[in-house]
């Protein structure tokens, strides 16, 4: 069915496989990657801010509370360790926002509100800073996977200045440490991680829907362009793409339509020019046949009496006669090729003896003495005798003109690529062979290997007519050189039954 005008692509052609990593998949993956990066970045920033807020809130509360407790802590010298332990336990009960473990250091004395007088969580750095800074210090420490907030503050007393000025903090030598496990804060942070993860996964799933919609909108014109290109490749040059929007894809569709229109116009003009050329060749050939027939008759009569003419006149008569015969051959070849172009050539098949047919071809052209024939007896085939005669004559004539003796015609049968039996006719010579640059063009019309050789016995259409006749029988023709480089071989393969191949 021919596609005309704008159309919409519905589904890929039957048998077309979807590419696992095609443009659609890559667009969806890119869309999801952007969504994942955006969601991950947002979640990471949100998590960091929330985690800092949770930890700083707990930290500020604990430091402020502990500083107040230390400021209100009373003790007497000499130090009473039992009373000191009681005070530490009372301070631990007032711990906020979580339970504290309070430790005291005074010289060599180490006591705490816990069972152990010292804590491995308290680092030497914190001890040094707590002894050096009257305002105290704090530090977050992770021990065995558990986070802790450690606070160290010296107990000081104020010494008033003369004149009622501000006091001066004097260390007493007693330093108190609070160790607060931050398990609840860690649980809250882990809950934030889980919430961010659980929120990101549904977000990606939701992002898949607009990704599919977006890729569909992008790929629809691409598919239409592909379908239109395929349609044009099949010869439907009137195919066009519907233009939607004003984006780059729409510009591409407009460019395709403009190019398709220009190509269609050019092809139509070429077709019209080709039709005119074919009609001109056919008309000229028909118009030349009648005067040529009269010229051939006259030159034939003149050539019969040429021996009685003076030498110059005799040469002129024979030259005119030979050139007239060449012109007659050219006209017949032009008419024959025009029938092929007009699809007016047909087959008149008959079952013939192949060897006898080839012998008659050679005899009619007086080639029996210069051509060696290898013809099997009893081989019969159904073909058009007249066209097969033309095929053999053109191949042998080409070998005689451009090859070298001896020229050999060999006929045999072979099984073709389609599994059917074929009649194979080979014409070989022992000449220089065919140049590699000539081989692809040897069956082209009016092609001559030597551009300077403009005058020859051939019309330049013989091998082209051979090709058309082989195709008409459903066969093929090919040219090659012998492997040893000692000549050329032209081979024609025809079905043994002409109706077996496409006409």
TrEMBL record:
Swiss-Prot/TrEMBL keywords: Kinase, Membrane, Phosphoprotein, Transferase, Transmembrane, Transmembrane helix, Two-component regulatory system
Reactions the enzyme catalyzes: ATP + protein L-histidine = ADP + protein N-phospho-L-histidine
Domain annotation HAMP: ranges: 216-268
One Gene Ontology CC term in the entry: plasma membrane
Cited PANTHER family: SENSOR HISTIDINE KINASE TRCS, SENSOR HISTIDINE KINASE YKOH
Stretches assigned to the Histidine kinase domain: 283-498
EC number(s) on file: 2.7.13.3
Protein name: histidine kinase
Gene3D superfamilies: 1.10.287.130, 6.10.340.10, Histidine kinase-like ATPase, C-terminal domain
Localization: Cell membrane
Originating species: Streptomyces chumphonensis
Pfam families: HAMP, HATPase_c, HisKA
GO molecular function, one term: phosphorelay sensor kinase activity
Keyword Iron-sulfur: no
Listed PROSITE patterns: HAMP (PS50885), HIS_KIN (PS50109)
